[in-house]
Amino acid sequence: MNAAVGVPSLATVLADWIVGMQSRKVPPGVRDMSGRLLLDTIGLCVAAAHTDYVEAVLAVAEPGPCTAFGHERRLDMYSAALLNGTAAHGEDFDDTFEGGPVHSGAVVISAVYAACERFDLSGEDALLGIAVGVELLCRLSLVTPKAIHKAGFHPTAVIGTMAATAGVGAALGLDRDQLASAFGVAGSMSSGIIEYLKDGSWTKRLHAGWAAQSGIRAALLAKNGFIGPLTVFEGEHGFFHGFAPSLKPNFEPLLDGLGEIWLMETIAFKPYACGTMTQPYVDCAIEIARRGVRADDIESIVCDVGEGTVHRLWEPLADKQSPPTGYGGKFSTPYCVAVGFIDGEAGLGAFTEEKIRDPDILRLAGKVSYVIDPGNPYPKRFTGHVRATLKDGTVHEIRRENMRGGAHDPLSREELEAKFAGNVIHGGFDAAVAARLKEAAGGVFTVSNLGDFEGFSVS
Fold it and tell me: How many angstroms separate the CA atoms of 298 and 72, rounded?
């Protein structure tokens, strides 16, 4: 209890919800979304399995009983969570929640799956943990919209630690007091600054994995008696005070309909391997190209954007028009627009060190600029609005009111499975392996003991 006001702390309210879910069935729509997230996350891990950044994490991993998706080698629980989370988020091709934006599968699935393997839990336990963790991640992201980014932190990193803690705690069957303390512990384990935007370096890739392994640690510490502050969310020196000081928290979206309305059912799956808010602009650029417009005919391209996206995706403009690394290109709307226009897509191959030096792409990216649209609905909805002015004065204008892949324009099951297969093949495996991994993913929630489950072996 919060003695100052005589009401339960938010951590305790959330703990009560999680304990209640331990005796309830996960709704069918939530089960379906959890399965989609699992499939997408595994495919992304395999796609990144042999990248240099994953190899760097693998080099410091410890052996153990847990799966590293895309590898024959098995790791200890913390290393598996760190590796899988880093791999799944590493190419910025993972799911997103409009309203956050936050990425759930890379964090929550990496944490929950590793813990369930380590402690021989069932697929149903994993399903519960995924559902609880992902739902909490979505809801926490709505408490202080845009303010976490404004403070220089990555919402997936800091909120993700709380979500992973909830997911692992639910799967392990922690009680009310243990769960509430676990949140308090997780508050001191949350981290992740966004300075990677300056030079396109790798730390954002690490954030999801770090949150995943931190969530496991927080849950297990609390399970074994370690006590954390119950007012971690709303306290004077609490989580939102530290990570979002510019905005007073609004906890209504966190609690409204909790347990009855599942926000996670609206999660979006990206069609392109780049930053979430750039996706509709890529679609706009592709549509303009389909009209027969040539890059050489373009005088300028102006994008109407939400103010909250500018400091991450547009500025400094000259740097964004010529990103320093392939990874940095993922967070450059000018580059992504140019790639989409010229290539008709923005897949994994669009963000290599060779590709970002393509003179045709850079020439067009140099013509892309922005204006802030005060009516843009970001972050509640991700939209696109592009105006291309040709040298002869002709103007081509495209608007997208919704992100393709999101709740209002979702990818079909067939499209998601095609993305999965493409990611597995990109990771160096053949279509037969992709089919076997897809079948294994479809059966995870029916397995009685994940510690004995070897369906994701790539040997």
Answer: 49
Q: Do 372 and 310 form a contact (C-beta atoms < 8 A)?
A: yes
* Averaged pLDDT, 268-278: 96
* CA-based nearest residue to 309, from 388, 402, 377, 241: 377
* Chain Cα centroid distance, residue 345: 21
Task: Using the predicted structure, report yes or no on whether residue 311 has a pLDDT greater than 60.
Answer: yes
* DSSP 3-state of 456: coil
Cβ–Cβ under 8 Å, residues 205 and 330 = no
Query: Would you state the pLDDT for residue 1?
Result: 44
Cis, bond preceding 253 (omega within 30 deg of 0): no
Q: Which domains does the chain have, with CATH numbers?
A: 10-270+437-452 (1.10.4100.10), 276-400 (3.30.1330.120)
Query: What would the mean pLDDT of 410-423 be, rounded to a whole number?
Result: 97
How far is residue 182's CA from residue 221's CA, in Å, rounded to a whole number?
A: 7
How far is the C-alpha of 443 from the C-alpha of 112, rounded, in Å?
A: 16
Structure tokens at 255: 């609690």
Contact indicator for 275, 92 with CB cutoff of 8 Å: yes
Residue keyed to tokens 């980014």 = 149
